[in-house]
Amino acid sequence: MTIAISQDQIQIIVDRAENIYPEECCGILLGTISGSLKTVVEVIPTANVWVKSELGDDLADPTEISRTKTSRYTIDPQDIFQATKRGRYLELEIVGFFHSHPDNPAVPSICDRDLAWHVYSYPIVSVMQGKVNDFKSWVLDDLGIFQQEEEISFLKLP
Ligand SMILES: [Zn+2]
Q: What whole-number distance in Å separates Cα of residue 86 and Cα of residue 90?
């Protein structure tokens, strides 16, 4: 899979990640899918509405309960609904969800994998001491294992 995203679009994610640091930022990518190419058209930063209590008591990993927005994110379903509506209006679809990893590498966590769906791309930016230093995009393979997106194609703006 290839994701095509412009430097300006990446900059929106970078700015957001650095502004929200040390919490995780998150957001929605609208675009088009053609064969194995996803093209990002719009980057929609959203609030991180993570709350611990969402997890309930049946946690596989008891350390989960101590997690905060510095290491977890949740996108409000209402934001996803609004993005879907906007996408329908613009003839675009949701192609992925981005988030940041404050003081951690741009590699998906176990939690990221558990919450991921096959069709989407999951760009992650690593923010070390407030500065973004890495950007990688991930997709699930047929076995449900995250693979780094084969290629990030940086679109040149007209
Ligand atoms: Zn993550």
A: 6
